[in-house]
Amino acid sequence: MTEAKPTEAGTEAAGKVKRHHQEKVGVVTSAKMEKTIVVEVRRRVPHPVYKRTVTKRSKFMAHDETRKAKEGDMVRIVETRPLSKSKRWVLKEVIRAAAVAAPVV
User: Fold this and answer.
1) What is the pTM of this model?
2) Which residues in 44-71 are b (16+ Cβ under 10 Å) and which e?
3) Contact 70/28 with Cβ under 8 angstroms?
């Protein structure tokens, strides 16, 4: 007795297929735009020739509907459909809020 395994087409017909979207963690470098933040993601990789660890960085524009992320916050962003010419990411959560310095009087 063999069991029939559902195919991908069968699961699509039954309901939506859960897709895995990329997630990245980075620091907000700019929150000056309307509902848009710029997130800098840093990663450490070995240099292809010298095998020395090098820090690479990338900047991503992400959609922040509620404007809860501030500059300096550590956030998690998730990949989504294109929202504008440069926005392909959306804010998922604020992991750690930035330390707020006391204002100088």
Assistant:
1) 0.75
2) eeeeeeeeeeeeeeeebbbbbeeeebee
3) yes
